Amino acid sequence: xxxxxxVDVLSGKHKRAKVRGxxxxxxxxxxxxxxxxxxxxxxxxxxxxxxxxxxxxxxxxTVESSVEISGEVHKDKRAPGGCExxxxxxxxxxxxxxxxxxxxxxEEFLRDVRHLWVRSRKLTQIFRVRSEILHAIHDFYHxxxxxxxxxxxxxxSACEGxxxxxxxxxxxxxxxxxxxxxxxxxxxxxxxxxxxxxxxSFRAERSRTTRHLSEYWHHExxxxxxxxxxxxxxxxxxxxxLTRHVLKHCKTELKxxxxxxxxxxxxxxxxxxxxxxxxxxxxGHRWGHDITDKDERKLVADAGKPVFLxxxxxxxxxxxxxxxxxxxxxxxxxxxxxxxxxxxxxxxxRIVKKEDLEKSMKMYKLDPKDYDWYMDLRRYGSFPHAGFxxxxxxxxxxxxxxxxxxxxxxxxxxxxxxxP
Length: 420
Ligand code: 4AD
Known about the structure:
By secondary structure, the protein is an alpha+beta fold. It is built from 14 helices and 18 strands. It folds into two domains: 93 residues, CATH 2.40.50.140; 295 residues, Bira Bifunctional Protein, Domain 2 (BirA Bifunctional Protein, domain 2), CATH 3.30.930.10. Helices cover 32% and strands 28% of the residues. It has an eight-stranded mixed beta sheet with strand order 6-10-11-18-17-16-13-12. It has a five-stranded mixed beta barrel with strand order 1-2-3-5-4. Strands 7-9-8 form a three-stranded antiparallel beta sheet, with no helix packed on it. Helix 5 packs across helix 7 and helix 5 packs across helix 14. The chain is elongated and about 85 Å long. 34% of the residues are buried.
């Protein structure tokens, strides 16, 4: 018989089982040693009795040692998962040195030893959900006939404004790390019309918040002929699809993470649509006032469901956004705010006419030379189009109920953290 995942042992499929994994906990008395063994699928208690051929090896075991174990499986209500393996064979594969992580260490220390902390049950569950979300994103687009397209990470020009650009040396020239796939996506549309990507984006964020990273995974989509209403409705379907997928496929993970899923289960479209003008009224701000992270969380908490903030003042947003023909001091842009997180997606209709784009670039003090290839899209058969970007980590935060963005990505990069 070959090795089986722990989850299969717990499901009562086997009378005898051979498993391998890492020692999660160890407890011993004079006559019995209990080892809780861990693999990605779960935890199982293994009991080694004095006199068993495995006894001497079991005595040597330390937390996080890797082992292979075989024995009889029997039901035991006291054991986690309701099953126990009565071990008769145990092989130590890698005996661990004293593991540096114990119960009372600080959050900061856990981030210093991230390469070891990734084994924790909490992070394991979060990464399992994260993987499931990425899988569901690909499914969603595949079902709708979209193509996956990549863009370069080294770029010459900004997409989302100069303040968060990372400058890098590119041979003997200056280049920037990409903030977004969008401008390249736009020029791909006459070829493919419906495209998406999942890729790293880089932002030199100066602020230390619980929802900003310097390098994050960015899902973006761009669609030819899509209008503003279509863009909002598309995002509703997308978020609903992902929420339902996670509810269906990540039951155990969400339970272990203690995520109360009632809001996910009752999620319905349409989400609330709120213009910037209405939002600032609610918040008691004046026109032109920034809507902060805290403001966003308040707006969405008051609404009790996701909110699309729309029609922002033009100078608060990016140069490529189409002004609203009904109210040209605002743009056809939307940020989707999720409960507890705030902004999770940002999207817009893009400027169609070359002259309008040139005017906008002037307004934003951008050098048209840096965007010459982008302008060509307006020179050769321009058309209405729209798209949005979503921070994968923010979505993972919401779906898993994680408080800090750093816990939703294996190796977070922030202003102060470059290792491990
Ligand atoms: O709103 P943003 O800046 O929009 C764009 O980049 C557009 N070009 C997207 C598009 O229309 N194709 O970023 C989109 C999303 C945000 O809503 C947020 O979820 C996430 O990216 N994001 C970050 N996530 C983590 N850390 C950061 N520093 C982030 N900056 C943006």
